[in-house]
Amino acid sequence: MKAIAAYVPTLLAPGGMCMLVNHYFFRFDADSRRSRRIHDAFAWSPGFTLQAEHRRPFYLVTLLRGAEAGVRGLDQMRADRVRV
């Protein structure tokens, strides 16, 4: 999951936004715990900055901003993706 979360920011324009929305019942079921792990992995990613998180009955929303141009590592990953 962390590998995907680290790769997704390279697909965005510099400073682009990513919104994750998943099923969520405040950790009462396995799917809610899985949703929390997904959102945590993306928030962990060095290519994202957490902008907002909203926990409501039935859903979890996380809004992330991609790194600006010039962030070490992300520019190289973007360049590698373009070459493929």
Care to describe what's here?
The protein is of the alpha+beta class. The model has no long low-confidence stretch (mean pLDDT 84). It has three helices and three strands. The protein has one domain. The protein is elongated. Strands 1-3-2 form a three-stranded antiparallel sheet, with helices on one face.
Uncertain regions spanning at least 5 consecutive residues: none
Strand percent estimate: 25-35%
Determine the N-to-C terminus distance. Answer: 22 Å
Q: In percent, how helical is the residue content?
A: 25-40%
The helix/strand order is HEHEEH
Quantity of strands, as a count: 3
Structural class by secondary-structure content: alpha+beta
- Tally of separate domains: 1
For the residues shown, what is the average pLDDT?
84
Please give the radius of gyration in angstroms: 14 Å
Shape: elongated
| Neighbour order of strands in the largest sheet | 1-3-2
Number of helices: 3
Q: What's the story with the biggest beta sheet?
A: 3 strands, antiparallel
Question: What is shown here, in short?
Answer:
The protein has one domain (2-83).
List the helices and strands and how they pair.
Layout: H1 2-7, E1 17-24, H2 30-44, E2 48-56, E3 58-66, H3 74-83
Antiparallel strand pairs: 1-3, 2-3
List keywords for this structure.
84 residues, alpha+beta
